[in-house]
Specification:
alpha/beta, Rossmann fold, Enzyme I, Chain A, domain 2, 6 domains, seven-stranded parallel β-sheet, 50% helix, ATP-binding, 3'-5' DNA helicase activity
């Protein structure tokens, strides 16, 4: 079995326990991936009880995790094989590529592909691109609404549903809820069952008959219990700080009332509805002056006011409000039923569109896989027997649909799942951590227990003990069962499993020995900028603080590094560097960009992984504006942006002259800006400006023509090349990022051209519409990755993106960011059990009222949201290996209030109701350490409870004004305000500087030339922006997704594969007996049979274009008796470097290449190069000019090697069936 000394007792138990389900709860940094992979290796290496590779199913959450798992297993098997050269291990290694190690989506794809006939689907289906999916859904939503308006039976109901709402089908419009509901149901195992349940719940107007009423009663009882706890807290504050002045009053006026309501709720009678319906709440009792401090009174009054407000809110609940059935119930039933019907209509339209395009999405794969397993006993039995062991990674993130699939595959004693509920942070993907919790609840803790085995891993091999102590302290107080669904008990406590050197021994002189730092900025949590501060925002102030702290860490101001970190690759300690530091934010967005800007101003190299902001960049704004103008020149704003951009450089004064001329010519008549530009170009007073505008309009016409007749991606590339725009943005600040962004736009255009919904042809209009819809829905693309991402730079990323990763130094920024409750305020909310809840529009008043379903769902969603946010904080804090810095903004008096509250407790956990009042992660951290002596002393709080002591963390409160001043200083430096006035310099010195700066190495060209090259490299050597054909790479699928037997297979005839296939036909065609259509088709069939060409690609080969070549004057010479035809002719010849670049005379360059066809006739040679570019008309000549130099090299090589003169060289373009002769010049000499 496994190598013992490396594993803890719990790890060993997880690895070695067989013949039962094993549930591993692996806290952060406890080696879950290593345990899972080791268990796989041990099973595969067992030669006594042999398990073939293909009998193991390993499912991961991401493709990257699957690849890592496969690599780990392969590496370990290889090590064991090298030790004993076992034939068994060799076979396992050879078969490893056939293993079922993938994401669940990829596994479902494999399942569906293998049994397509059972499901009645086309086996050549493709997976729809996510961007295409967004566009298609947006278009189908419009079609669905149009379809509904045309149905006269529901038009009145639609009027009622949409009355008083934002009815846009994009952005935050109400109709977008139709798409949201459809996507929500993608993860529900029984989609149709959900609709049936939703209709049942919506159709019951009598509250007493609904499950929702029972569910709301249970939630109300919990809320009343929470108010009771608050009142006890108020009494405790009163006792400690006020001498018990309000205690009896609170008991009499509030406690007795709440107790009576709770008792009624639990009995099941309706007395509580009367009590809550009539509750108004007594005024707060005043205390005689001087008896109670203002601070103490405010603490008690705040709690009482909170209870009073909550009790009043309860009167609005459906089961309490006596008028609910009269005012809301009927409307709620009708509007919810109609909304459900609209969702079903949209689902049907979306399914139909996918069938027509022969596409599936990832949700389809999972639903079809479940359908397959449930509908066929034979297939289900086959896979249950096939998979002897099933492994699931990140089990806490499975949804109900995925869990249902696993249940169909499992036998009850062969499943190994590993995960950590505390790290379940994907609720937006419908992850259901309660699935794992339910299974853990019924599992045993030891081998002696029957059934499933629970194994808890808590030895952390990632972080320093100080970091773990801080995390344990915080979550031991704030992560309770009531808040997160599980308690942070002894099982969850993290224990240090890796022994680092003492902090003092690896820290520089004067360095603070604390490994955790809490840095608070004394300001409100508001996001806005204060004009008095020169519009410095809160995140910029945090950026200034973080930049200063980072520079001190790495010794950026000239000193040495503040401390060393352990390098796990080099297995030694070294100075901390920028690349060891990561800044984590809850949602970086635009604020991540602001933070990065401040760091750059402070000379801190930074790389941001923000997932938004792409379309806000200047270069992309310019490019998108150009696309919009090419689509419709009458877009005045976009036209002005394009003209004013660096592409054309029309100045503001020139704009003014254009406008003035239009007014002079047309008077008060309204003239569009486009008309004004055209008019000035035709007859403007200033000839130079008129000529400039004519050139601009002509260039726009050229690009528009290419975009409409040819490839959108080619047009974009032409724009980049002809304007030098890539070079221009590369020279700007952050140039590499800007250039990468433009290249990404080009890649997206290539992807767009491959959309299945573009089968009728790519449209510039549709691409523009696609981008506009994306922006209207507040969508975005992540900025492109650039070279700096791999350099020694601080990284900024979201907490979600950091999941599964670790860093020596972690800085948590913007901890004060308030939780996003946007999903709780929408008009439509969703839940698997309670289905759909609407804000109902009243027909008479036009007011909106919550349906009971919405009230129930929102109350549950609030708790789910807080539990998820608490887990997100856990993930963020446990990414740190050696140092953790916490940064947030909060007014000092608000911090002091939390510390004051914590100081009253006895050191145990914080009450759930207090934690639910938290608005940010910072609040929870303060509640977690609020009773530490360091904070109690810092805020001069008198503590009655037990205090924590020791050097758990360092704390600092920073003044906002100091940081605002620092940001202002950095801005000034960035603008180059600190300039030095240059003295007048003599002409001789200027000339000398010019001479030095302008000097060039005389043999620079020779230094750049390779000793050996190909023709294509030579012909594009100096072209910085030479177009790279990446279409095949973008369309390529991972092996696990593609499935099949590994033979050539494609779901559509993409251009690159089609071009290769066409070349093969030209090469393999037998020309000895003449060429006709039957000969070409026979050749194609033979190539398919022998596996050279996929069948679907073969269908796209233009047989007529092949025939057209051989019927042409040049092509027909191959049939002449005295002609010798050489196809795919390889050559190697030497070229004098001087012919390639100046200053390289005498340097011999070896050039290699392959000529498509050489026809040798008695009079000389003819060179033919076949091209399958998708070009027509005028574009053929332009494309031929680009290939001319390449063909000249072919001609020169053929002439030199074969010793014959070259009569002519030709390019044959197969798509338009055109032959273009290439002017040879001196290349063939």
């Amino acid at each position: 079995m496994s190598d013992g000394p490396r594993w803890t007792k719990q790890q060993r138990m997880a690895i070695e326990t067989l013949d039962r389900d094993v549930l591993v709860t692996a806290s952060a940094g406890t080696g879950k991936t290593a345990v899972l992979s080791q268990r796989c290796v041990d099973i595969l290496a067992d030669e006594k009880d042999v398990t073939e590779v293909e009998r193991m199913l390993v499912l991961t959450f991401t493709e990257a995790a699957a690849e890592e798992m496969l690599a780990r297993i392969g590496t370990e098997l290889r090590k064991r094989y090298q030790q004993g050269r076992s034939v068994h291990l060799k076979r396992q290694m050879l078969m490893l590529d056939a293993a079922y190690i993938s994401t669940i989506d990829s596994f479902c794809n494999r399942l569906v592909s293998e049994h397509f006939h059972k499901l009645g689907i086309d086996p050549t289906f493709r997976i729809i691109d996510r961007d295409e999916q967004k566009l298609l859904k947006s278009e189908l939503l419009d079609a669905t609404i149009e379809q509904a308006w045309n149905d006269e039976t529901i038009v009145p109901a639609i009027h009622q549903l949409l009355s008083g709402r934002n009815v846009q089908s994009s952005g935050r419009g109400f109709l977008r809820n139709i798409i949201s509901a459809s996507e929500f149901l993608d993860s529900v195992a029984d989609r149709q069952g959900w609709f049936e349940r939703a209709r049942l719940l919506a159709g019951t107007e009598c509250l007493a008959e609904t499950e929702l009423a029972d569910e709301q009663r249970e939630l109300l009882a919990e809320k009343l219990k929470e108010q009771r706890d608050k009142l006890e807290h108020a009494i405790m504050i009163d006792s400690v700080m006020c001498g018990g002045f309000w205690g009896d009053w609170i008991r009499q006026e509030y406690v007795e009332f709440v107790d009576e309501c709770m008792a009624s709720c639990l009995r099941g009678d309706d007395r509580f509805t009367e009590l809550l319906g009539e509750f108004s709440g007594p005024r707060f009792k005043s205390a005689p002056k001087g008896e109670v401090t203002r601070e103490a009174k405010d603490l008690v009054k705040e709690v009482i006011d909170d209870v009073k407000g909550c009790l009043k809110e309860m009167a609005e609940l459906a089961i309490v409000n006596g008028r609910y059935e009269e005012i809301v119930a009927r409307e709620a039933a009708g509007q919810t039923q109609l909304m459900l019907r609209l969702v079903e209509m949209f689902d049907a339209n979306y399914a139909r569109a996918k069938r027509e395009m022969n596409c599936l999405d990832f949700a389809d794969l999972e639903h079809l896989a479940l359908q397959l397993l449930r509908s066929s006993e034979r297939i289900r039995g086959h896979y249950r027997e096939k998979f002897r062991y099933i492994f699931v990674d990140e089990y806490q993130d499975t949804n109900t649909l995925q869990n249902a699939i696993l249940a169909e595959l499992a036998k009850g004693d062969n499943t190994f799942v590993v995960g950590d509920i505390k790290q379940s942070i994907y609720a937006f993907r419908q992850a259901r951590p309660e699935i794992f919790m339910e299974r853990l609840g019924s599992a045993g803790d030891s081998l002696a227990d029957g059934g499933s085995l629970r194994v808890d891993l808590s030895d952390n091999f990632r972080s320093r003990e100080g970091v773990l102590d801080f995390a344990n302290t915080v979550f031991g107080r704030v992560m309770s069962e009531g808040m997160a669904g599980l308690g942070y008990d002894e099982r969850a406590m993290l224990r240090a499993g890796f022994e680092y050197e003492d902090v003092a021994s690896i820290s520089g002189d004067g360095a603070d020995g604390a490994v955790v730092e809490l840095k608070l900025i004394d300001e409100t949590e508001s996001d806005g900028a204060d004009p008095a501060d020169g519009a410095v925002t809160k995140i910029e102030r945090q950026g200034a603080l973080i930049a200063e702290r980072i520079r001190r860490m790495v010794g950026g101001d000239g000193g040495g590094a503040e401390f060393k970190i352990y390098d796990r690759h080099a297995e030694c300690y070294r100075d901390v560097e920028y690349g060891d530091i990561v800044i984590l934010m809850r949602s970086p967005g635009a604020r991540g960009g602001e933070l990065a800007d401040v760091l750059q101003l402070a000379d801190v190299p930074v790389s941001s992984d923000s997932s938004v902001g792409y379309f806000d960049t200047t270069e992309i704004t310019d490019a998108v504006s150009l696309l919009k103008v090419l689509d419709n020149p009458q877009r005045d704003i976009e036209l002005a942006a394009v003209l004013r951009s660096p592409v054309f450089g029309v100045t503001d004064s020139e704009f003014a002259r254009v406008r003035m001329e239009a007014r002079k010519e047309r008077g008060d008549e309204k003239v569009s800006f486009y008309e004004a530009v055209v008019g000035y170009a035709e007859a403007g007073e200033e000839a130079a400006l008129a000529g400039k505008l004519r050139a601009v309009l002509e260039k726009l016409r050229e690009w528009r023509s290419q975009a409409r007749r040819g490839s959108l991606a080619d047009m974009l590339w032409r724009f980049y090349r002809e304007t030098g725009y890539l070079s221009y943005v590369s020279a700007l600040a952050n140039g590499r990022q800007r250039r990468s962004n433009l290249l990404k736009l080009h890649d997206r255009a290539i992807e767009f051209e491959g959309f299945a919904s573009n089968a009728g042809g790519t449209s510039l209009t549709r691409f523009v519409e696609f981008i506009e819809r994306l922006l209207a829905e507040e969508g975005d693309w992540a900025p492109a990755q650039n070279e700096q991402a791999g350099e020694n730079a601080v990284r900024i990323m979201s907490v979600h993106r950091s999941k599964g990763l670790e860093y020596p130094v972690v800085i948590l920024a913007e901890l004060d960011k308030q939780f996003n409750t946007q999903d709780l305020i929408g008009d439509c909310v969703l839940d698997e059990k309670s289905t759909m809840g609407l804000k109902v529009v009243d027909a008479e008043s036009g007011g909106k009222f919550d349906s009971i379903a919405r009230q129930v769902i929102c109350e549950k969603a609030k708790r789910t949201l807080l539990a998820e946010e608490l887990r997100i904080l856990y993930v963020a804090m446990t990414r740190a290996r050696e140092r953790l810095v916490l940064v947030g903004s909060k007014k000092a008096d608000k911090v002091r209030q939390i510390v004051q509250t914590c100081a009253m407790f006895d050191g145990g956990g914080v009450a759930d109701w207090l934690l639910r009042k938290a608005k940010s992660h910072l609040d929870w951290i303060l509640y977690g350490v609020g009773n530490h002596a360091k904070l109690v002393k810092m805020f001069a709080v008198e503590s009655e409870g037990a205090m924590m002591n020791g050097e758990l963390f360092a704390a600092e409160m920073v003044e906002r004004d100091d940081l605002s001043a620092e940001v202002a200083r950095l801005r000034e430096l960035g603008r180059g305000s600190e300039t030095v006035e240059a003295e007048e310099v003599g002409g001789e010195m200027v000339e000398r500087v010019k001479e030095v700066v302008g000097w060039r190495y005389p043999w620079e060209g020779a230094a750049e030339l390779p000793a050996k090259s190909s023709v294509s490299e030579l012909t594009h050597r100096d072209d910085e922006f030479a177009k790279m054909d990446v279409s095949g790479a973008l369309g390529r699928q991972p092996r696990a997704v593609a499935g099949g037997d590994g033979k050539a297979k494609a779901s559509r005839a993409d251009r690159k594969l089609l071009g290769t296939a066409t070349h093969l036909v030209f090469e393999m065609l037998d020309v000895d007996g003449g060429v006709d259509e039957d000969a070409v088709r026979e050749t194609v069939a033979q190539l398919v049979e022998e596996g050279y060409i996929p069948a679907d690609i073969a269908e796209g080969i233009d047989v007529e274009s092949v025939l057209a070549f051989f019927e042409s004057g040049i092509g027909s010479t191959v049939f002449e008796a005295d002609s010798v035809v050489r196809r795919e002719w390889p050559f190697t010849y030497g070229v004098d470097g001087g012919r390639l670049t100046a200053g390289s005379e005498g340097e011999k360059i070896v050039v290699q290449g392959i000529v498509d066809m050489v026809i040798e006739r008695p009079s000389g040679l003819m060179i033919v190069d076949f091209k399958t570019d998708n070009v027509r008309g005028d574009a053929v000549a332009e494309r031929a000019a680009g290939y001319a130099e390449q063909v000249r090299h072919y001609a020169a090589a053929a002439g030199a090697v074969l010793g014959r003169p070259v009569e002519g060289a030709y390019l044959y373009f197969a798509t338009p069936r055109e032959m273009v002769e290439v002017e040879l010049g001196s290349r063939t000499d």
